[in-house]
Write a structure and sequence with these properties.
The complex is a heterodimer of chains A (115) and B (115).
Chain A (H helix, E strand, L loop, with lengths): L4 E3 L2 E4 L5 E6 L6 E8 L3 E9 L2 E5 L6 E5 L5 E5 L8 E8 L10 E2 L3 E5 L1
Parallel strand pairs in A: 2-11
Antiparallel strand pairs in A: 1-3, 3-8, 4-5, 4-9, 5-6, 7-8, 9-10, 9-11
Chain B lengths: L1 E6 L2 E5 L4 E9 L4 E7 L5 E7 L5 E3 L5 E5 L4 E6 L8 E8 L9 E2 L3 E6 L1
Parallel strand pairs in B: 2-11
Antiparallel strand pairs in B: 1-3, 3-8, 4-5, 4-9, 6-7, 7-8, 9-10, 9-11
Classes of the chains: A mainly beta (115), B mainly beta (115).
Chain lengths: 115, 115
């Protein structure tokens, strides 16, 4: 079974631009969560999608948004990029999602650098 | 509200020595507790999970953790460190909160294993 796939692996953008990150979960998994990882703040929860619906959201500004498609693939979008958005963005999938506290399977992440 | 504190952002041990990574949590309801490991340039991988079935939890790669409610701790141990254990370790807490569910991670502990 293929693991969680995140594309692209690396991204370089400039301030003010927008960016879209993609995540393909493990086949059969319906839940996709996104996390931002930085050296200073550690791992912070962005949002979770389950069956195309956002089920939970972290404390991030509205510039951060996401969506999930019918095949469970998910995209995350960040508009009007700021220097502080430079981070590793991790996607995690699970079969039934957060309410079951089951194991999360993580992708290798997208390293975003904002110049 | 829930939170996780990992004592020591960096732990260094010799190969063959005991590994002890500390985690204390705060939760207003009975928690679910996790340890994840992140190897360089990879996503996170679940080591073990506590869900109230047993206080001593055994995980992969020889790691185990003990839930101590009186101390609100969930420390991770391994009797004998191996070079391949060098990685960053994250403790995380959640609870069965339905739509308010959130998996909260600690800031991580970087484990270095010296030959």
């Amino acid at each position: 079974k293929a693991g969680v796939t995140q594309t692209p692996r690396y991204l370089i953008k400039t301030r003010g631009q927008q960016v879209t990150l993609s995540c393909s979960p493990i086949s059969g998994h319906r839940s996709v969560s996104w996390y931002q990882q930085t050296p200073g703040q550690g791992l912070q929860f962005l949002f979770e999608y389950f069956s195309e619906t956002q089920r939970n959201k972290g404390n991030f500004p509205g510039r951060f948004s996401g969506r999930q498609f019918s095949n469970s693939r998910s995209e995350m979008n960040v508009s009007t990029l700021e220097l502080g958005d430079s981070a590793l963005y991790l996607c995690a999938s699970s079969a039934l999602g957060s309410t079951t506290n089951e194991k999360l399977f993580f992708g290798s992440g997208t390293q975003l650098s904002v110049l | 509200a829930q939170s996780v504190t990992q004592l020591g952002s960096h732990v260094s041990v010799s190969e063959g020595a005991l590994v002890l990574l500390r985690c204390n949590y705060s939760s207003s309801v009975p928690p679910y507790l996790f340890w994840y490991v992140q190897y360089p340039n990879q996503g996170l991988q679940l080591l073990l999970k506590y869900t109230s079935a047993a206080t001593l939890v055994k995980g992969i790669n020889g790691f185990e953790a003990e839930f101590k409610k009186s101390e609100t701790s969930f420390h991770l141990t391994k009797p004998s460190a191996h070079m391949s254990d060098a990685a960053e370790y994250f403790c995380a807490v959640s609870h069965s909160g339905g739509s308010n569910y959130k998996l909260t991670f600690g800031k991580g502990t970087l484990l270095t294993v010296n030959p």
